Every structure is written in structure tokens, then in C-alpha cells.
Amino acid sequence: MTASPSISIAIIGSGGSGALTTVNFLLEVASSAGWHGLFTRTLGPQIRGGEAAGLLRLAVHPVDCPPDQFDLIIGIDWLNAHRFGAEIKAGPKTLVISDPRGGEPPPMVTQSGAHVVEIPMKEMAKSISGGRPNMIALGIASRLLGFTVEQMLAPIAKQLSGKGAAAIEASRAGIKAGFAAAAGIKLDVKLAAPSPSDARRWLLSGNEATALGAIRGGVRFAAAYPITPATEILEWLSPSLAKVGGILLQAEDELAAINMIIGSSYGGTPALTATSGPGLSLMIEAIGLATASEIPIVVVDVMRGGPSTGIPTKSEQTDLNIAIYGLHGDAPHLVLAPQSVADCLFTTQWATYLAEALQTPAIVLSDQFMGQARAAIERPADVAFIGARAVATDMSSAYKRYALAPGGVSAMAIPGTPGGQYTADGLTHSEFGIPTSSAADHLAQLDKRRDKLERFNYGDHWASIEGSGELALITWGSLTGAAREAVGRAAADGVDVRVIAPRLLAPVQPERLAAALDGVKRILVVEQTHSGQFHRYLRAHYDLPAPVRAFHRPGPLPITAGEIHRAIMDWR
Amino acid sequence: MSSVTTRLACKPGDYKSDLKPIWCPGCGDYHVLMSFTRAFAKLGLPPEQITVVSGIGCSSRIPAYTSCYGFHGVHGRSLALAAGLKVTRPDLTVVVASGDGDGYSIGGNHFLHACRRNIDMTYVVMDNRIYGMTKGQPSPTTEPEFDTALTPGGTGVAPFHPLVVALASGANFIARCFSGQPNETADVLVEAIKHPGFSFVEILSPCVTFRPDEQDWKEQVRPAPVAATNDQGKAARRLMTDDGFNLGILYRGNRAPFQPAIGVSSIDLSELEKDFEL
Ligand SMILES: Cc1ncc(C[n+]2csc(CCOP(=O)(O)OP(=O)(O)O)c2C)c(N)n1
Ligand code: SF4
Ligand SMILES: [Mg+2]
Fold first, then answer.
1. Which of A185, A295, A341, A348 is 20 to 30 A off residue A463, Cα-Cα?
2. pTM of the shown model
3. Is the CB of B58 under 6 A from ligand 2?
């Protein structure tokens, strides 16, 4: 048995089986012990109950993408598990633990050559007073992954502390029974020991990281309408904003939400909304208003499969076009995309900072994959991006809200300031904010709003760039993790690839990309869309100095490092 | 209204900007603007403490004609924008101006929820029973037989009753005014602004261009025969049976306004991280 830098586990069960809780315990324990991890869930279409699978990857390095294949699959029961078949890949090295009373494993598993071992988890649970099959599964997983029963009990005791000693005892007995039942069963891989580190450890979802980034960047007001997969942002923000003196309002719809945050920001309170594609569509008109009236706002779009209602619980990168081109008129604004759970924090904080500095809307394109994944990470470093807009205080001469200042950013009067009264307006306006249809004013203000975005120095955060190979892989968003892993494998095959992942999608940065592409011979564009939106965007705005191939496919299945690795190896 | 230090001896003219309105000569909205400035002067509020928020339409042009802070936003969303402003800036006096198309048609959903939410602000709808700005299409308050190019022979659809809708949705103050009576209207606006919670003031404001027939309103309007009530049942009966021309304050509720705590932070930001620490 070799020590592997990462290992992947899937636990499958029907509604109420506790499969997801079990995976979460494993993640907590592994994280406390120093490993990194990523936990995603996949659920059937039922609102509540139905089948569920928890997918976990543990590693000695940060994990930002799904595995190609699972090392261990535990089926508490297989009811409708074929629905997940495509997402839970097994192979000849996979160990499958199956409850004989839980139905047949799906063909995807049985035909993979995986080694199937039967353990009657349900029956074992029955023999324990208050016993539950998922605790048996946890015991099995603990042994196979090299954890002890006592290690598992710590988080369980914490979670069940309200339920009394009997509940904790039942769990202990379940884990022990599972642990014993796994004696003699061999898993092909062993997870390498984590390198010692005294970094503080966090366990959080991308949506929570997004929300924290917003508050750190200065957001104190949020308004939103619930939508999958963005709602967790709001659910964490609501109590957290209250703790820091802010407010979250549940709006009657997205049209209201976006206008509410414009009102808040106009009044001087930095503001955010979070939504997904259908909501972003409804917000577009008012994002244009914020652009024209130069009101900073942050709009987080946690992308899901589209168009229309699409696939609410699965990821895609298909809102790129609407985020960049969706506004009517010439309406320059910011579009940014985080690249991992941890980066959701940084990018949202940076977006808030930029929106405030440039007095413009920032659309943050997160996605379902990283938004709803829970990751065990090292505490991200603090960054100094705290929103601070130019506020008008000196009213000694007639105040021009939209003065043609060098750099394009003009000081904003906050209501309550004597002498600063102006009317913010979506109508084309003069420097004073007075409506006009004069060609000169129109052009001057269009130039102003373009220049303030284009002349700003965004620094190195605009993209993450790694490696120096002659093949450049250009990707964005949550695919960056899978791309990096694929590039690591290619390096092991002797192929050097550089990865370029823009975090700032608008305004475009042609000079910076040109520098990043210096010396490349081939370019591979990787994205999760059906139509190649990112590829077209690159072609439209950038000089691509070498032959280009594009690898793109739609959701719902996440794009794996294996797929990208193959695309790299095919384009050498 | 918010408790701010009032300045004495304010004149209505102090609340007017230098901008010349784009309205047609004789448009009722001129008188509404006059009522606004008179009401603000009576309240003695510093102009910078007032924000006038609007959507799109002839009526929605009003913010820039005042010397207050203003927001001329998109069509139909003024109440939402004002809600975000007021909850984060409870110190400001927020007045929202709208038209019957802006407020009842495209913005109808926000009207319901603004009444329900009962944030302390005053909502003024200049009802001319027509889309003035887009040159004469029917609105939700237009009579079914009113003939327009878009709806030859009329819509055939009965108008809805905004005051009843407001009452049923939870508005805390309901009044009707006529633009041709700017002093009376100013007095009602003063009461509306002072009344806690969401105050709704419908101002019948004739569109002389597309509804010349509305010139007759000055003969049709009358002071409401009975005083304002705080009884929702009574108000419902009165509003349901009213012909649309009774003027004055018709309902004064006593619901507590919605205002979540703001700006009172007890913790350091790093405390939020505890949610994620193992
Ligand atoms: C989204 C959108 N749709 C349509 C319009 C066109 N439009 C401008 S004003 C208006 C109607 C205004 O009617 P009302 O609110 O009654 O105002 P009035 O002009 O009568 O005062 C319409 C339909 C617009 N500006 N925005
Ligand atoms: S069109 Fe009617 S509502 Fe508009 S300004 Fe002219 S008279 Fe007034
Ligand atoms: Mg009208």
C-alpha cells in the first residue's frame, strides 16, 4: 500500500440515513488532525428526504476540485443511487462497502471492477439501543482511513451535547461496531500524513466565505430574495451583519433587492445582494442604474445550470455573458470571479473594495460548486482591502457630483451633508447631475465612467498565474482548482503548462494577459459552458498569440482534473 | 419623520431648485411641487435632511426640482430604493414620489410590500389615470372605456382601488389630495411625513395634455365628510364605497414602524470567524 496525497470517499444513503452528517464528521476530524478537505453533496430532486450522497476529498494539500474517481464508497442503501452514478465514479481500485439489505449497487459501481464487501449496517444498528446505520458507516470509514473511535467521538459529543448521554453512547457503540466490522478489510490507498502546521484551521463553505469577505470589505447592508444556490450567503449574513451593526432585508423580489442596495449605498452604507442566474436577469436594469448614477454595489451571482430555471443545484459558468454584456447601453462595470472556497473570501472583499473605490457595480461570479462546497482550509491571510469611497465634504463651491476629475472618480455627497444636494439619476446627466441630452455631456460622462475603470491599477490580483510552460491553460472561476491539479499531473508526465486564471473579468486587462502569455506556443481554454462563452470572450478582447483549442462542456457534472489532463495531453 | 433639529423661518422657495420643470404648462404636477416645498417649509426641515426618491414618469421628475437630495431611479422601483435608504439612514426624512403607472403598474408589487413593511416614509402618487410620459396609454386607474391609441375603445378592464389596496396591505396613513389645492395638500403632507410608518398620499393631479377631461376634477372633489379613523374596518368600508373624490386624511393607523437596529456594533470583526474555527 502506498501513501497517497489525497483520498476520496463517498457515502450514499436515502433521506434521513445521515450520510451527509457522517461525511461532515469525517471532514471535521480530518481537518482537526491537519488535513485539507472538500465536501460536496449531491441530492435527489425531492425537497426533503430522498437519496443523498456526501462526497469528500481529504488531502495533504488544499483541495479545490472533485476527484476523478472514489477510493471508498459506502452505500448505507442504494435507493435511486443510479441518479448519482455519473458523479460517483468507481474503478478497479475502489472499495465498495454495501449493506446487503440496502438494495443493489448501481451498474456504474458493479461494472467498474470495484471490490464490493458486504456489511449489514442496518442490522448492526438495530442491535444497538438507539443505534443508527450511519454511525456504523462512520466506524467503518474511520478504520479504513486510519482514524480512531475516540477521534470521531469528539465532534459527535459536541453536536449531540443537547441530546443527552444516551445518544452519545449509542453513537459510540455504533462507531465501535463499524470499526470492528472493518477489521481485515483493505483499502488500496493510505492517506499520507499531513505536514505539521500551526496555522489556524477553518471549516466553511464558499458561500460563507463570500459573506465574510463582503463584511470585511465594508458591506453593512444586504437585501436579497432567496434562491438556490445563493441562499447560504444570506443565511450567514443575516445574523452576522446584525452583530456588526448592519442589516439584511429579505426583499419581495430581486427587482426590489437590487434597488434596496442602491438606496443603501446612495445613503453611504456599502451594500450587497446575492442571487443566481434567474435573479441576476431581473436585476440587470438596476445594475445599469448603479453604473450610470455611479453608486457602488456588490452583486454576487452564484451560478447554476441555465438557461431559465435550469439545474438549480448544479454548477455551470454560463452567466459570464450576462454578467459582462447583459446591461443595455455602454455600461462599464466590474466583473470578478473567485477561484476556490478560500478565494471567495478574498475576491468578494476585493470586489467590495473596488466597487467603493470606483463607485460602480461589481458583479462577483461565484458558482454552485464552490459556493455550496464545505472546505477545510488554513485561515486565509488578512488583506487590507477595506472599501473607502471618495466622499465630498468641501462644499465651498457649487458641488458637482459628476465632476470630470482626473482618473474619473468624483467625490460623492452623502445625504445629510449640507450643500451637497444633488439628484442621482439614470438619465444622461451633466457634471452637476442635471438631466441632459447634450452630445458633449453624454460623451464626457461615458468617457468618465470608462476611464475610471480602465485607468485604475488593479495590481497582481487581476489573475492567478502559475508556471512557465509553452502551453498556456486559460480558465476561470472554480475550474481553476481542477486545472491546477491537471497541470500537476501533466508535469509528472514531463509536460510543463502555465495556468492563467483571471480573477478580474471586466474591465479586461489586455496588456497584463499579453505579458502572461509571453512565449507561449499553444493555448488551451477550459470552461464549463456548452457554447464556449469564455473562449469567445477571450477572442473578443485579447490577442491570443498562439493556436487555441477550447475544452468546454456544460454541467451538471463537475469538470474533473482528469478531463483537463486529457485535454492537455491531447494538445502537445 | 425623523427627529432632527428644525431650522426656523424656512421659506418654500428654499426647497426649490433652479431647474425648470419639463412639464406641460398647466400640468397638475406643478402644484404638487408647490405642495412639497410648502410642506417642507412648514416642517422646517433642512433640505439636506430630506431625500426625494422617484421612478420614471412625468411625476417622477419631481426630485431634481427640489433643493433636497434626490434619486431619480428606474421605472417602478422607487419604494424599494427608498426602503434601502431609510433603514440604513433612519435619520433622513424620505419622501417617495410616483405616478399611477410607475407606482401601481410596474411597481405594484413593491407598493404592497412597502405598505406591509411599514418603514417610516411618505409615498406620494400623482394619479392622472394615464401614462403621461409615454404619451397617453391607460394605467391601472384609467376608466375602462377611456379610448387610447394603444387600447382603441378603452381597455374594458375596471380600475383598481389603490387606497383599499394600501389599507389591506398595511399602510399606516392614507390620504387623498387634489393638486389644485396646494395649501390643503401641503397640510396633509405635513401630517403624512410626521406620522410614523408608511404614509400613502394619493394626489389627483390632472394631465392636461392627455386627459383634458380631468380639468373637471376641481368641480368633483370635496372634503371627506367624516374625520380620519384609526379603525381599519371602518376605513375599509369608507374607502370601498368612496367615489375617488373625497379629500383629506382618511385613515391614521397605529402600527409601529419597521426599523431594525443599525449601527450598533458590539463586536470586533474577527469574532465572526468563530463560526468557522474548529
Ligand atoms: C422598464 C421601463 N418600461 C417602460 C418605460 C417607459 N415609461 C416611462 S414612464 C412610463 C409610464 C409613466 O406613467 P406614470 O407613472 O403614470 O407617470 P406620468 O407620466 O403619468 O406622471 C413608461 C411606461 C420605462 N421607462 N422603463
Ligand atoms: S404629459 Fe400630462 S402628466 Fe406629463 S407633463 Fe404633460 S400634462 Fe403633465
Ligand atoms: Mg400617470
1. A295
2. 0.97
3. yes
